[in-house]
Amino acid sequence: MNKLSVLETWFQDLWIEEKLDTIDKMLQPSTRVEGLRETPQVGPEEFKPFVTALLAHVRVRKVEIKHSFEDGDWITALIAMTHEARSSGKTIYHTGQVLARIEDGKIVEGYNHIDFLTLFEALGLLPEATLSICLQGKSLTAETPSA
Fold this sequence. Notes:
The protein is an alpha+beta fold. Helix content is 33%, strand content 39%.
């Protein structure tokens, strides 16, 4: 399986079809993943709570790989994601980039830069225009009005 196919399978099976056993099938026990939480996650057991928490908020309807490049064991991809908010049914679109090292059809190292700001604003978990609020030097609080 080529690297692009590995990524396509990962997104389809785990995120769209919500087959959580994909994590055990496609990650090595020592896989290191960065960029999704405050601290790196190592191995499938540390990655599973992240997936479960995110899928509690959204149904992933589509992950489109807009562009990808491969170099040796590495693949990087610009992705566009379409979700449906579980709470409201609202369609949410945002983008991200992934960089993964793949060996023998498994992801052994991953670096992610996902636009979670747009996602969580659309879910109503952050104020509208959060970035603008922060750029104005204002702190986010429960009482922060939209910019």
